[in-house]
Amino acid sequence: MEVQTVLAVVAVMISMAALTISSVISSRQLRSMRNANHLPVAIELLTRDYGRPDFQRSERAMLEQLASIDPSAGISGLPEPLLSKSLQVINFYDSIGILVSFGCVDEELVLTTINYRIRRIWESLEPFIRAERDLQQRPYLDFLEDLAARAHRADSLKLTRRRGLLVMPGREENPGLAAHSVSRSSQR
Predict the structure, then answer these.
(1) What is residue 164's DSSP assignment?
(2) Between residues 161 and 150, which one has the greater pLDDT?
(3) pLDDT tier at 66 (50, 70, 90 boundaries)?
(4) Strands (E), the chain
(5) Which of 23, 57, 81, 117 lies at a C-alpha separation of 20 to 30 Å from 45?
(6) Where are the domains of the chain?
(7) How far apart are CA 188 and CA 172, in angstroms?
(8) Would you say the pTM of this structure is higher than 0.90?
């Protein structure tokens, strides 16, 4: 091979590598920009809605009252004001499920922060949701179910460890976290 041919092949290879690298970087930037557009919505849901006292009251009322109601009439058959309170809670968790499903919100963020509550909500609502699906003969709250399945599948202890969260000395309910225990003297 002539020197000019070798140089041309090397130049083409360098150009291809540069094109590949630039494509990968562009793809990552596009994904980052897309997620950045959804982040304010996620923050709004998690801070504004979830933290409101009326949301907390609605969630508590729903969890307390659903156990005493026959689920055969589905969600739409709930009496007022329980129906309105339940829909407020359902819409919140279903919206979180949509954001997680489409990758707009980090699944680990959601499952680390509200895993227990997602599972409790699903356990209370599941018979009502299944009845509603039977009544309507169509999908209903599939994103909430997906979120609940993710929460049930997740290992809370592993999520906590992966985040490197510290626990207070003597915390016995999660003995596996003892390696991350912290005392006042070790924080100084």
Answers:
(1) T
(2) 150
(3) very high
(4) none
(5) 81
(6) 53-161
(7) 24
(8) no
